[in-house]
């Protein structure tokens, strides 16, 4: 295993393929050249491929190589898996989805015209930026990749020698480089995720900087930072797809290069990352240390806790859950509903105490712990189900643990959605939903909205009145607000029905919306005639017709959303965990023993909460029998 | 900026902060943006000096100084020329000392500047002072330069580090530590004197006890340092295990990875924990809170980990199966994740299947049935998650993912390295059969997948290792899909797949032909008023498949089925064009030998741009004709042979003529090709193995006489050696060329109708011209590549048949300058003709067609392009005189030829003892052997006309005239020269210069020459009277010969023919008939 995790260089490009920022680490580059010379000397005898000692690319050469790769791979991220257009030597030839993120660049040096292959380059796309990070590997890894991407056969089997998986297992530097790339992405978009900790009915609690500036206690923040969980799952359903990813986007115009530089020089001064904790680094950069920051005498201060808290003590937990559901309302397909949760924590505790957090009783609820924060000492036998977990909390908000579970209390929104095309341009639909059936206090649903997206058709009008709530429509969707935000309701069962019709503008094959990579090509005129004759069902006819213009989705999507009719439910609840996660505040112990108030709150958000049109096609996945 | 510094290099003019930023940006950017700085000397040493001095300037903002410091670090190798390094390091160290010792103030000297300068200086020192001198293969010799400066730097760093008890600058101390660590890393042992061993132990034990106090990356670094030590000291891994086991459960990906690394270093210590690790890493992939790429990474680790672990430990089927169930994708898993989870399931299936096979080989396994069922169900269920591919368009990502999985399922564990296990086993596996079944079912249910399926099979077929899998799949489709497909109009969508089946020799074509037959009859049946176009299109597509079959299978294999199908189509198909084309294919199937046929068809395939004869292009609807330009061009632009061919029809000619008039040929020639057994449609049972060729005796190789080299034979061999050494070996050097004289002309009137400008003057219309004409030639016959011919200018000629009556008819002809007969017509015509020489370099003496395309500019700049009538190359075009060695005098030539003739004549007899002799060709690389064949031709023609014809057409090749009577007649004619005259030999006494072979008359000849056939008439008796003999020697390029011995009688002549290229006999028959009997 390659023992180091160092970075030779990194670049940040925008979507016009211009390098906005670059940083080379000459010390790491020196190590690469030493390794290359050594390797070349070793394999002098055999005619193995010789890695050229690096001649480091300029920004303009990188930009040119990036543009060339974009052309070769179809988009900035590329096909990933082997496509019709893939050629030998390209990333997609390797035929693996991760090749969209671990890429190669063929740099042509301006001065001598020689070609250099750079791999593995970590490619992270964030808003309109592309971040490229080049970790240090051994020359033989580069050779191994070259073999993989240039082999002229039909592609790798699983579990055979010399495959990509074993290469990735050998290279923790790739993992580390991804972490670097993600932090840099967060910095340049000023989108530093911080776990949200909510005190019951109060606003979010701020992070490290708030504590440092002395605002002890609950401080209102102008903008509560959305937890990363919610952000990662929302946007996909509507208007997703690969088409948008390369299009120019609007966003922060200029990089804050000074912030980047100062972060880099502290986080990885010589190219080897030391710490990527942005808030700690920023705090040190901006505040430095004062004579008051004295190291504790009785214990060692961890590297990840440069400052100690001083002030009124308390311990806050927030259970944050995302519920995903695929509701089919069909006999042959079971509904699937799952909860993804995390316990966020903020420990305003003086000194360096340990906290014992009970995990008892989780097993009965079939809650499965996914991971713990590194500050936690996990019992050796791992399973989170039996005991308690001891942790030494860092200063800022952090995610103590993550878990997944089935829905242990009733389904928050259930029922069905039926949409039937009565003609080519008109659909009749019916919703029948029940909300919070069998729910008990303390629980509130803060809002609940049902959205029917029609990304490929233009909505002209709709008719129909829901039994509760209000309806509005936009060009490509109809929205039904069952519970408007700001008018949350307590735990009571709500029945909601909504029959209606929706009218669309006539279907135009190549509408402007899905122009672009419609790769269909030659339709067989013969089959089309055949269909016209035999198709009695207008719906099937329409599906066939519209499918001809379906663009392929990105590998990041779960399926081709546009191929289905569905309604997406969005809601937020507070007061109870759907997974049944409980925190017994009395059993939380602090060592050395000190009496501090322990509070906890719960939030449940909807993720991909989808009601599939009962009368249409729907994506499914089999669940294992046992 | 504008002032360029003088050569003595005074300090550069200081830059403003904006200029600095531009300079740094431009240096990063490189290329043209760098040039202006170089030209104004802001480069190299002057820039280094400027940078250092700028760092100390008080008026520059702090952020800029940080930038300059980092810039110096990144570009120092180009900024500091080698001779200046020492001076620069001193300078740099001074600057560092100055900054470090300056008291902190909030504006000019801050901690961040001190830190940055420490880092940059250390970096630069590492680059310049530590040299890895890896001359020795194993150990790196680290050599230090500028040691005193380096010691200075270390001293500065240690001073900072040791300033303890002063809390404010602890970050700076940390940075200094980091600098020392980096120096030590690059030069191990550098600081060994500074740090005591005792201290090292203390630190080590502290860190081992409290690893959780480190940051993530710190812990990783520590582990990567500790791990090799632990391995080297053979430490008990249990210690590490206790301390680091928790890492697997953290949400930090790097720490999880570090754990896996540790696991793989101490596999024994961790054995038994495999399942826990697998389960745990799988959970990482489920953390939707993580970025997708980390979840993908986790699955890759799993694949890699399972590969490493399972190859070593015994496989517990139940466990694997249980694990595999965990990999089921969920609905909302991104497709990338689904793809990798499917990989894992494939891997588990393969492992299960392998263990099942192993069990089955040993004892009876009670689980075989159940595990077989479950393995299949495993991946069937798993594929549900992308099942949308069955109805989504073929380009959907779901489809790509599904077929990627199919590929992995099919190839299973077999790697592409040569040492891999026998891949044939794959075909036996449960998985393979199940996958095959799935693919067939899918194809039946979702026609949209057919192109994808075809591409999929192609991917396998192209792989050197898995080609047989593709073939196996095609066979499965042939066996299981073809009987089940519904034969209706939708069948057309299966054609991409059928094309693959048709192309593959391993698939018997019977099933496909059967199905196509049914389809054709349905097309015929359903044909109505509104289906005209569809019948045409579908019929044409079927014919394309027929053509594919013709190209890839031996004629005998497809003969019955295909001829039936084509015959049916010829007779019944509603569309004329399809009927015509079917007829052509049928004719080709019947008449053209297989090899030649495939060559003809495939040549067309390789050169789609130069479609020679129109029927091919019509055949495939992909090529669209430009009706205006290319359709009729050959009706008024003519390229014609100067010397017309004697033989107007041969098989190649008759093929071309089919297309034009669609008539049946007058006769069919049956020629076998060497690879394909002949298949005679009428009597298929009758001895298909032995080819029967009319009037032709095949090479008889089985009767090999003992070789006895006597003086006569060695003389013959000597002559032949000399002769062959003159013949260039076309495989290694330019071969012998033949030229065909042609003329190009075109008719003004029809030309103007198509290309003329209505507005232009009448005179122009009268004499249109072609400018810069290029004639390009191509041929499916083995004539090599033919050079294009260029004609700069050509005037249009009058339309021939209109001239005589033209005067009064069209107004354009009113002032035609040419009148009928008065002007010297030939001379006039000459000016409208351009001479064209087509030079061929035959690889085989055979007739053929040369396709001609023309490109030219018209008067008004239009580009004229299209096909002209093909030029026919006859066998007589191949006739050349044998080469004569340089050392033979002019008057010795007849004698040389005569002896060459005798030698070749002898060598070409089947009993020749030279048969095994190899003759070196010119160039010294290639050899040839003489494999002689004989034939005879009886010509009922009077001696007079025979002699005339010989004098006219073969005079150049006559090497010997024997017999008084003949010699006298011929000598009188005076046409023959360079000939040996043999008056002395008595006529009729000896028929041959060499011994007559008695088999000659008993061979498969229909001619009874000299006896017992009197009933037919008295002519034969008269024939007996011989006047003498001609010996004719013809060289056929590239290396063959044709010899005639004509025994001239008064009213008939017997031609004995010998050749060392037997296929040419097929044309000679026609040629002799045309020459003498017409």
Question: Unreliable segments of chain B (pLDDT under 50, ≥5 consecutive)?
Answer: 1-7, 362-369, 603-627, 650-708, 759-765, 801-825, 985-1023
Helix content of chain A: 10-25%
Alpha-beta content class of chain B = alpha+beta
Secondary structure: number of strands of chain B: 17
Which stretches of chain A are poorly predicted, pLDDT < 50 over at least 5 residues? 213-253, 511-535
Principal-axes geometry of chain B comes out as elongated
Largest sheet of chain B: 6 strands, mixed
Overall pLDDT metric of chain A: 82
Average pLDDT for all residues of chain B: 76
Strand order of the largest sheet of chain B: 12-17-16-15-13-14
Q: What structural category do the secondary elements of chain A indicate? A: alpha+beta
Task: Tell me how many strands of chain A there are.
Answer: 23
Helix percentage of chain B: 40-55%
- Beta content of chain B: 5-15%
Number of helices of chain B: 42
InterPro entries (chain A): AP2_Mu_C_sf (IPR036168), AP5M1 (IPR039591), MHD (IPR028565)
Domain MHD (chain A): 312-574
Main location (chain A): membrane
Family (chain A): Belongs to the adaptor complexes medium subunit family.
Question: How would you describe what is shown here?
Answer:
The complex is a heterodimer of chains A (626) and B (1078). In chain A, 19% of the residues lie in helices and 29% in strands. Chain A has helices at 26-42, 59-73, 139-150, 164-170, 172-188, 208-212, 228-234, 257-267, 278-287, 525-534, 538-547; strands at 7-14, 19-24, 102-108, 115-126, 129-135, 314-327, 336-348, 354-358, 368-372, 376-377, 388-391, 398-406, 413-423, 426-435, 444-453, 459-463, 470-474, 477-483, 489-490, 494-504, 566-574, 589-591, 598-612. In chain A, helix 8 packs across helix 9 (278-287). Chain A is globular. Chain B is elongated. Mean pLDDT of chain B is 76; it is low at 1-7, 362-369, 603-627, 650-708, 759-765, 801-825 and 985-1023. Chain A: Residues 312-574 form the MHD domain. Chain A: It is a peripheral membrane protein. Chain A: Keywords: Membrane, Protein transport, Transport.
């Amino acid at each position: 295993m390659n023992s180091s995790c160092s970075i030779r260089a990194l670049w940040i490009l925008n979507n016009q393929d211009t390098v906005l920022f670059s940083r080379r680490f000459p010390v790491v580059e020196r190590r690469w050249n030493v390794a290359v010379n050594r390797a070349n000397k070793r394999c002098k005898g055999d005619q193995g491929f010789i890695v050229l000692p690096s001649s480091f690319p300029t920004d303009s050469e990188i930009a040119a190589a990036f543009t060339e790769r974009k052309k070769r791979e179809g988009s900035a991220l590329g096909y990933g898996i082997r496509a019709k257009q893939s050629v030998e030597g390209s990333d997609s030839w390797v035929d693996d989805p991760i090749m969209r993120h671990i890429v190669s660049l063929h740099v042509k040096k301006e001065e001598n015209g020689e070609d250099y292959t750079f791999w593995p380059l970590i490619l992270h796309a964030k808003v309109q930026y592309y971040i490229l990070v080049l970790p240090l590997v051994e020359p033989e890894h580069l050779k191994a990749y070259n073999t993989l991407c240039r082999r002229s056969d039909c592609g790798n089997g699983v579990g055979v020698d010399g495959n990509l998986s074993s290469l990735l297992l050998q290279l923790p530097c790739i993992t580390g480089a991804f972490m670097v790339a993600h932090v840099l992405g967060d910095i340049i978009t000023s989108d530093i995720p911080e776990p949200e900790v909510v005190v019951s009915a109060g606003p979010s609690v701020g992070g490290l900087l708030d504590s440092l500036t002395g605002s002890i206690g609950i401080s209102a923040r102008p903008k509560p930072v959305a937890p990363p969980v919610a952000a990662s799952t929302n946007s996909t359903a509507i208007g997703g797809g690969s088409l948008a990813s390369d299009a120019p986007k609007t966003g922060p115009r200029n990089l804050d290069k000074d912030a980047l530089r100062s972060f880099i020089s502290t986080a990885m001064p010589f190219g080897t990352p030391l710490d990527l904790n942005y808030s700690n680094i920023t705090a040190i950069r901006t505040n430095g240390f004062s004579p008051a920051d004295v190291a504790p005498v009785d214990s060692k201060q961890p590297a990840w806790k440069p400052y100690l808290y001083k002030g009124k003590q308390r311990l806050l937990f927030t259970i944050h859950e995302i519920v995903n559901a695929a509701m089919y309302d069909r006999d042959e397909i079971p509904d699937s509903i799952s909860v993804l949760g995390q316990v966020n924590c903020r420990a305003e505790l003086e000194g360096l105490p340990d906290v014992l957090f009970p995990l008892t009783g989780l097993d009965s609820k079939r809650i499965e712990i996914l991971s713990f924060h590194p500050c936690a000492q996990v019992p050796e036998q791992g399973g989170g189900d039996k005991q308690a977990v001891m942790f030494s909390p860092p200063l800022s908000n952090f995610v103590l643990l993550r878990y997944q579970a089935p829905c242990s209390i009733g389904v928050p929104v259930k029922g069905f959605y039926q949409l039937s095309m009565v003609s080519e341009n008109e659909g009749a639909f019916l919703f029948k939903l029940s909300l919070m059936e069998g729910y008990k206090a303390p629980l509130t649903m803060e809002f609940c909205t049902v959205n029917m997206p029609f990304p490929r058709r233009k909505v002209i009008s709709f008719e129909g009145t829901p039994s509760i709530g209000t309806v509005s429509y936009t060009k490509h969707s109809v929205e039904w607000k069952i519970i408007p935000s700001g008018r949350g309701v307590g735990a009571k069962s709500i029945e909601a029905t909504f029959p209606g019709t929706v009218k669309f503008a006539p279907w135009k094959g190549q509408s402007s919306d899905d122009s672009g990579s419609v790769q269909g090509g030659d339709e067989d005129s013969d089959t089309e005639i055949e269909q016209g004759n035999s198709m009695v069902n207008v719906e099937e006819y329409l599906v066939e017709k519209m499918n001809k213009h379906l663009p392929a989705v990105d590998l990041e999507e779960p399926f081709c959303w546009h191929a289905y009719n569905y309604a997406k439910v969005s809601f937020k609840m507070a007061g109870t965990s759907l997974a049944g996660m409980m925190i017994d505040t009395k059993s939380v112990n602090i060592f050395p023993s000190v009496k501090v108030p322990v509070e906890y709150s719960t939030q449940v958000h909807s993720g991909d909460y989808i009601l599939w049109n009962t009368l249409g096609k729907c994506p499914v996945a089999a669940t294992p029998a046992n | 900026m504008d002032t360029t510094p003088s050569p003595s290099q005074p300090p550069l003019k200081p830059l403003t902060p904006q200029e600095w930023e531009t300079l740094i940006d431009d240096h990063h950017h490189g290329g043209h943006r760098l040039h202006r700085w170089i030209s104004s000397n802001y480069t190299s040493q002057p820039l280094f000096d400027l940078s250092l001095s700028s760092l100390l300037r008080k008026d520059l903002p702090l952020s800029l100084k940080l930038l300059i410091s980092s810039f110096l670090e990144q570009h120092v190798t180009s900024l500091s020329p080698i001779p200046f390094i020492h001076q620069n390091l001193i300078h740099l160290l001074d600057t560092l000392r100055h900054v470090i010792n300056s008291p902190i103030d909030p504006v000019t000297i801050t901690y961040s500047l001190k830190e940055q300068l420490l880092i940059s200086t250390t970096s630069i020192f590492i680059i310049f002072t530590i040299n890895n001198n890896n001359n020795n293969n194993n150990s790196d010799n680290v050599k230090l330069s500028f040691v005193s400066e380096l010691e200075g730097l270390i001293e500065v760093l240690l001073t900072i580090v040791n300033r303890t008890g002063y809390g404010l600058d602890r970050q700076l101390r940390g940075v200094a530590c980091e600098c020392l660590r980096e120096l030590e890393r690059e030069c191990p042992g550098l600081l060994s004197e500074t740090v005591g061993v005792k201290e090292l132990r203390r630190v080590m034990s502290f860190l081992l006890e409290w690893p959780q106090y480190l940051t993530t990356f710190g812990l990783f670094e520590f582990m990567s340092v500790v791990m090799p030590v632990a391995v080297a000291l053979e430490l008990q891994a249990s210690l590490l295990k206790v301390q680091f086991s928790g890492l697997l459960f953290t949400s930090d990906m790097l720490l999880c990875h570090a754990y896996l690394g540790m696991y793989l270093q101490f596999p024994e210590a961790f054995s038994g924990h495999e399942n826990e690790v697998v389960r745990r890493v799988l959970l990482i992939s489920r953390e939707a809170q993580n970025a997708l790429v980390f979840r993908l990474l986790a699955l890759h680790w799993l694949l890699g980990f399972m590969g490493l672990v399972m190859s070593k430990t015994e496989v517990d089927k139940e466990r694997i199966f249980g694990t595999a169930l965990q990999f089921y994708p969920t609905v909302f898993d991104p497709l990338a994740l689904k793809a990798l989870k499917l990989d894992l399931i494939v891997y588990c299936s393969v492992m299960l299947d392998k263990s099942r096979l192993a069990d089955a080989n040993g004892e009876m396994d009670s689980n075989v049935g159940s595990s077989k069922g479950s393995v299949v169900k495993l991946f069937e269920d798993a594929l549900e998650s992308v099942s949308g591919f069955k109805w989504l368009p073929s380009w959907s990502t779901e489809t790509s993912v599904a077929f990627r999985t199919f590929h992995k399922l099919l190839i299973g564990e077999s790697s592409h390295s040569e040492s891999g296990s026998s891949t044939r086993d794959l075909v036996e596996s449960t998985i393979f059969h199940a996958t095959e079944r799935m693919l067939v079912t899918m194809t039946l249910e979702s026609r949209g997948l057919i192109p994808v399926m075809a591409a999929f099979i192609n991917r396998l077929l192209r792989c050197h290792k898995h080609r047989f899998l593709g073939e196996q799949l095609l066979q499965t489709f042939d066996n299981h899909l073809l009987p089940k497909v519904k034969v209706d109009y939708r069948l057309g969508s299966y054609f991409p797949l059928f094309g693959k089946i048709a192309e593959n020799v391993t698939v018997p074509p019977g099933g496909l032909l059967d199905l196509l037959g049914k389809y054709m009859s349905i097309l015929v049946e359903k044909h109505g008023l509104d289906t005209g176009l569809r019948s045409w299109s579908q019929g044409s597509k079927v014919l394309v498949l027929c053509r594919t079959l013709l190209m890839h299978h031996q004629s005998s294999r497809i003969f019955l089925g295909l001829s039936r199908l084509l015959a049916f189509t010829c007779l019944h198909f509603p569309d004329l064009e399809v009927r015509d084309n079917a007829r052509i294919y049928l004719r080709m199937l019947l008449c053209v030998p297989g090899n030649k046929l495939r060559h003809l068809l495939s040549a067309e395939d390789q050169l789609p741009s130069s479609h020679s004869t129109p029927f091919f292009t019509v055949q495939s609807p992909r090529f669209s004709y430009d009706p205006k330009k290319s359709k009729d061009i050959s009706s008024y632009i003519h390229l014609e042979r100067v010397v017309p061919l004697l033989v107007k029809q041969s098989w190649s000619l008759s093929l071309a003529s089919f297309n034009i008039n669609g008539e049946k040929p007058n006769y069919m020639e049956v020629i076998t090709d060497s690879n394909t057994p002949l298949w005679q449609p009428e009597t298929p049972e009758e001895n298909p193995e032995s080819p029967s060729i009319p009037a032709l005796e095949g090479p008889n190789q089985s009767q090999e006489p003992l070789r006895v080299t006597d003086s006569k034979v060695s003389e013959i061999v000597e002559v032949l050696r000399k002769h062959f050494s003159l013949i260039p070996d076309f495989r290694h050097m330019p071969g012998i060329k033949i030229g065909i004289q042609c003329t190009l002309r075109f008719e003004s009137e029809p030309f103007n109708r198509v290309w003329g400008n209505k507005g232009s003057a009448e005179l122009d219309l009268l004499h249109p011209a072609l400018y810069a004409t290029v004639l390009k030639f191509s041929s499916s016959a083995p004539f090599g590549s033919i050079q294009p011919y260029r004609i700069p200018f050509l005037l249009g000629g009058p339309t021939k048949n209109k001239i005589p009556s033209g005067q009064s008819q069209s107004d354009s002809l009113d002032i035609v300058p040419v009148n009928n007969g008065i002007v010297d017509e030939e001379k006039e015509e000459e000016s409208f003709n351009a001479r064209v020489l087509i030079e061929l370099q035959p690889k085989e003496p055979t007739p053929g067609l040369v396709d001609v395309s023309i490109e030219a500019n018209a008067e008004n700049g239009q580009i004229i392009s299209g096909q002209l009538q093909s030029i026919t190359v006859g066998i007589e075009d191949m006739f050349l005189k044998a080469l004569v060695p340089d050392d033979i005098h002019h008057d010795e030539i007849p004698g040389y030829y005569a002896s060459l003739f005798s030698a070749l004549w002898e060598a070409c007899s089947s009993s020749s003892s030279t048969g095994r002799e190899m003759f070196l060709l010119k160039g010294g690389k290639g050899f040839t052997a003489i494999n002689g064949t004989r034939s005879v031709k009886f010509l009922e023609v009077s001696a007079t006309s025979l002699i005339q014809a010989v004098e006219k057409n073969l005079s150049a090749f006559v090497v010997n005239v024997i017999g008084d009577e003949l010699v006298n007649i011929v000598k009188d004619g005076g046409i023959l020269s360079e000939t040996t005259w043999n008056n002395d030999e008595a006529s009729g006494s000896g028929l041959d210069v060499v011994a007559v072979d008695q088999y000659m008359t008993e061979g498969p000849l229909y001619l009874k020459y000299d006896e017992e056939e009197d009933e037919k008439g008295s002519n034969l008796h008269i024939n007996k009277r011989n006047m003498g003999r001609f010996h004719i020697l013809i060289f056929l390029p590239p290396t063959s010969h044709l010899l005639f011995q004509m025994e001239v009688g008064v009213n008939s002549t017997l031609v004995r023919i010998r050749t060392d290229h037997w296929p040419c006999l097929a044309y000679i028959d026609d040629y002799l008939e045309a020459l003498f009997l017409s």
